[in-house]
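ok so i was messing around last nite and threw this chain in just to see what happens. nothing serious, just curious
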Amino acid sequence: MYLGDTLNNLKRWREAVEIYKSALQLLGPHSSILSRLGDTTMNLKDFKEASKYYSISLKGGGGEEEKDAASFIGLLFSNLEMSYWEDYDRLVHTIFTLTSMELSKNLPSTLSPYRSLFLPLSNEIKKEIAASWSIRSSSQNPNQDNIMSEAATLKSFFFTDDPLRQTKKIINVGYVSRRFEEYPGTQMMLQLFERHDRDRVRVVGFATGPDDSSIERQRVEETCDKFIDLSSPNLHIQDKFSAIVKEDVHILIDYDGGHDFNNLMVLFDETQTSDYIFFSFNFSSLVAWSESSTLAGDLVRISWDIRLGKRFKFCN
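result:
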């Protein structure tokens, strides 16, 4: 079974399917294996097969809430891919109930922050889901204590109500993305940029993707204090990094997430800088924050997928 998991993670999905099927022959209709088969066939975009495996997994009644939650979530989204709506309300209610139980026990939600955006859940629940994933990711980082210490220092330096401080510090926050365009992720986080407290925060947008002349691109440009297009193929990576340095950015956030094409990975690997705090996370977390109250000091509390220069391993 673990070999199947490894092959699945390596995107060798057809091989993973064969391993899982072999495991079923040896162990019988094991709910965990069936759920994994559902995940792998989803990756192969065989949604009918995925729905079948998730359904059989649930009928087996594995008895473990986490596995049941994963199968319910998989079943819902495989059905949605086929435009099958008959069980939608029941599945959403079940997923909400299981997710609420996990959160009440301070467990990471089986429902991912990304998938939560597609369900009729409150913004508060979406934020709790994102936070639960943040806690899990943070707990797995051996440098977490150092990271939080640095973040606390940063917060105390920039965000203070000390009346004795003569000059209020402004923190420069940079957002870098290749997707400042007509894209669902950008559409869902459009409120983010304007909600920063401008008495404390200056927002700079860095676009590594071309201008598509969309309304979304225009709004991001208008709601950033400064917007810089770094998409030209003639710009060397060092030129892009120099443009960021010139803006005196204190926190650089890549909302494209921890992928192979992540902007910060490239910047870090090519420049070997160690002077900045880098955040990288999928837009689902940013959406949860953009839909909440005005952002200022709260931004520094986000510890999910953070790396401080080259001293710490990059976390996805």
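not much to say yet. The chain is about 50% helix and 10% strand.
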